[in-house]
Amino acid sequence: MTPNIDKNQQLFDRARALIPGGVNSPVRAFRAVGGTPRFVQRAQGAYFWDANGQKFIDYIGSWGPMILGHGHPRVLEAVQQAVLEGFSYGAPTEREIELAEEIARHVPSVEMVRLVSSGTEAAMSAIRLARGATGRSRIIKFEGCYHGHADALLVKAGSGLATFGHPTSAGVPPEVVQHTMVLEYNNIQQLEEAFATHGKELACVIIEAIAGNMNFVRASVPFMKRCRELCTQHGALLVFDEVMTGFRVALGGAQSVYARQIPGFAPDMTVMGKVIGGGMPLAAFGGPRALMERLAPLGPVYQAGTLSGNPVATACGLATLKEIARPEFFPALAKKTQSLVEGLKSAASEAGLPFAADCEGGMFGFFLLPQLPQNYPAVMKSDAPKFGKLFHGLLDRGVYIAPALYEAGFVSWAHTDADIAQTLQAAREVFKAL
Ligand code: PMP
């Protein structure tokens, strides 16, 4: 398939001369799996084409946003219209209200919304608001959850875990993460201990309830229930990072999945991104009115953005949300995703490969492990060299999944039964060769 001149390689060489690692976000560089990143030329529906003109079935979908597939006609139309009306004004627009209304309509815990441009910004601002509202500094995050790259959130677990963490990145002074406690995901005992010692100092607990940054790990229902109880008891806010899961696992996000299992369940604040922008730079955070009214210009917690609520991005997001709110949308998407996951499981079992997989709505994950992991150390027991072979085997057969074993996968409305059948055929061949 690869032509004599590999244009991806040529572009990668050019890119590396100017852009660190040749990419503008690290995971795109294929560092975990080796080989040359595919440079995308164009995308349509469930596919994209690389610089060599090779076609791929896309299970990344821009890491989540492209829930309708690429170039959905009604989204294109909305974006084209918006572009003609102007790119950015730095003054409010009606469309920002419409998008906020649409978000609040589907996520009952969100009464007010502030729009921003990236998930990083949204999570960082939500933490600032939690701290500003409670007058407390300490926060809890969980190992394996990613909340963007704001300094205070770039923390790994300290030894023994239930201690304050260490910076994961150079350039983050230890003082900046001294208030960030990193606990093991799904570990109720550790959570209880942390609240027993620091409960009155905690501004918030931030969590990916279905953690897509360790592939696909669900917070157990008892764990989530305890999180909610402890936050309420100690006056800390429970912040759901739904940048990935929001409008992706269900219209109401991961919180609606937990609310089905825990009566009356709701987080205090929600961080969103990806799908709400439909592929444009747009993210948000929201919560109850009394909390959100502490933001500038009404309250003392400062937050702002030149491009926040950008008119082209809001047009794209709004058109996307309107499409996915159709009643038939999520059941059909979930069915497609399930058929992919079930097919992968049986292909693995035919090949005698240790394999576990899970999905919710249009998000899925699989592991080269005999059972679903419950936390980050268990996820990282996956066989990385074997995953690398699997990744390249699929890629060679025109199937593009995330190039790292700790990343989730995404199915879109545009994926057809034939795409899924082709993916499963590729998987059967690759699994056998493993
Ligand atoms: N939170 C979660 C759960 C995410 O998955 C991501 C990005 N993958 C972010 C926050 C950060 O979002 P962004 O990349 O838009 O800054």
TrEMBL record:
<dbReference type="GO" id="GO:0008483">
    <property type="term" value="F:transaminase activity"/>
</dbReference>
<dbReference type="GO" id="GO:0006782">
    <property type="term" value="P:protoporphyrinogen IX biosynthetic process"/>
</dbReference>
<dbReference type="InterPro" id="IPR015422">
    <property type="entry name" value="PyrdxlP-dep_Trfase_small"/>
</dbReference>
<keyword id="KW-0963">Cytoplasm</keyword>
<keyword id="KW-0663">Pyridoxal phosphate</keyword>
<feature type="modified residue" description="N6-(pyridoxal phosphate)lysine">
    <location>
        <position position="274"/>
    </location>
</feature>
<protein>
    <recommendedName>
        <fullName>Glutamate-1-semialdehyde 2,1-aminomutase</fullName>
        <ecNumber>5.4.3.8</ecNumber>
    </recommendedName>
</protein>
<dbReference type="GO" id="GO:0030170">
    <property type="term" value="F:pyridoxal phosphate binding"/>
</dbReference>
<dbReference type="Pfam" id="PF00202">
    <property type="entry name" value="Aminotran_3"/>
</dbReference>
<dbReference type="InterPro" id="IPR005814">
    <property type="entry name" value="Aminotrans_3"/>
</dbReference>
<dbReference type="InterPro" id="IPR015421">
    <property type="entry name" value="PyrdxlP-dep_Trfase_major"/>
</dbReference>
<dbReference type="GO" id="GO:0042286">
    <property type="term" value="F:glutamate-1-semialdehyde 2,1-aminomutase activity"/>
</dbReference>
<keyword id="KW-0627">Porphyrin biosynthesis</keyword>
<comment type="pathway">
    <text>Porphyrin-containing compound metabolism; protoporphyrin-IX biosynthesis; 5-aminolevulinate from L-glutamyl-tRNA(Glu): step 2/2.</text>
</comment>
<comment type="similarity">
    <text>Belongs to the class-III pyridoxal-phosphate-dependent aminotransferase family. HemL subfamily.</text>
</comment>
<dbReference type="GO" id="GO:0005737">
    <property type="term" value="C:cytoplasm"/>
</dbReference>
<keyword id="KW-0413">Isomerase</keyword>
<comment type="subunit">
    <text>Homodimer.</text>
</comment>
<dbReference type="InterPro" id="IPR015424">
    <property type="entry name" value="PyrdxlP-dep_Trfase"/>
</dbReference>
<dbReference type="InterPro" id="IPR004639">
    <property type="entry name" value="4pyrrol_synth_GluAld_NH2Trfase"/>
</dbReference>
